[in-house]
Design a protein that fits this description.
The chain is α+β, with helices and mostly antiparallel strands and 310 residues long. Helix content is 18%, strand content 27%. A hairpin with a 5-residue loop joins strand 6 and strand 7. About 10% of the residues have low confidence.
Length: 310
């Protein structure tokens, strides 16, 4: 039966923390293959839980004796320990087994278990995580990318894909879409918890920004902004300024504008009523009233104003 030349090689312990680069995560790490070497540096095992240390070392060194408080005595000098690590650590590249579309390696830490893979009997080694444990994942940078290009392109750049970037070290989450393959425009949604803002931006320059740092919401559109509500829209503010370069059109059934306890429409109605009932005294001393036509015109205005009253 045919067996793949890529095979599991050894359980390993990460020797140093993985390096986070400007554009991603270093996928190469130094690993100690603990099933292959005969001794393990005690300092390397310190981050591992004590129960796992006891189980692991007992398996590898049956002659080592432990006391009731899980302490041990190993007859090996510090120099010998360092030499063992130096001679037996392996440089391995992240395999990403079953982590499809993930472009960045997990941010593994010193003392974490990983699985080592070897390509035949060569010096080419790969590594992969054994478990998902948030206790080990600190200041993580993860990028997931998805392409909708119709043909294979090994050199396709990230900005021409759909991708999600999560960067907990810089407190950032970024979702990006492309416009390369028939999409109307690009979209970028950025959540920056460090600076304190949420921004939605398209490739045409329209955007919405919730700025928690300044307690401010900004909406910018190239053409129009439309807000529709089936019931009520309530605005409460201390000051409001509207700068309108051309026209303002308000279509409504009723209008009420109040300043403290005064309603504008009501005030206008009182004015018309006073004008209708006003009497005039001419030069001859006779009292006169508005003509029927004038009174009718004023009454028509009053009726229209009353339809606007709340």
């Amino acid at each position: 039966m045919y067996t793949s030349v890529l095979h599991e090689y050894s359980l390993g312990i990460v020797k140093t923390d993985v390096k986070i680069l400007d554009n991603g995560v270093d996928d190469k790490i130094e690993v100690v293959p603990i099933e292959i070497i005969s001794e393990i540096d005690d300092d390397l095992l310190k981050p591992i839980e004590i129960k796992e240390q006891v189980r692991l070392i007992t398996k590898l060194y049956p002659s080592v004796k432990y006391t009731s408080d899980n302490t041990k005595t190993v007859n090996i000098t510090e120099t010998e320990q360092l030499n063992i690590l130096k001679e037996n650590s392996i440089t391995a590249t992240w395999l990403g087994k079953h982590q499809y579309n993930r472009l960045t390696a997990p941010v593994v830490r010193k003392g974490e278990y990983v699985m080592l893979y070897r390509l035949s009997n060569s010096s080419i080694f790969f590594w992969d995580t054994l478990r998902n444990d948030v206790r080990w994942r600190k200041e993580e940078l993860v990028i997931w990318a998805f392409s909708d290009k119709p043909m294979v392109d090994e050199n396709e750049s990230l900005d021409k894909m759909y991708y999600l970037k999560i960067d907990t070290k810089n407190k950032l989450l970024h979702l990006h879409t492309t416009s390369e393959y028939g999409e109307l425009t690009t979209y970028d949604i950025t959540l920056n918890t460090g600076s304190g803002y949420l921004e939605i931006l398209d490739g045409k320059g329209n955007y919405i920004k919730l700025d928690s740092g300044n307690d401010k919401v900004t909406i910018k559109t190239n053409d129009s902004y439309e807000l529709i509500a089936n019931n009520n829209i309530v605005t409460r503010t201390n000051n409001e300024t509207k700068n309108i370069n051309e026209n303002l059109t308000i279509n409504l059934n009723k209008l009420a504008i109040r300043n403290d306890n005064v309603e504008l429409i009501g005030l206008l109605c009182e004015l018309i009523e006073a004008m209708i009932s006003e009497q005039h005294i001419g030069n001859l001393g006779f009292k006169t009233h508005l003509s029927g036509d004038s009174k009718s015109k004023y009454q028509d205005i009053l009726d229209k104003l009353n339809t606007l009253r709340v």
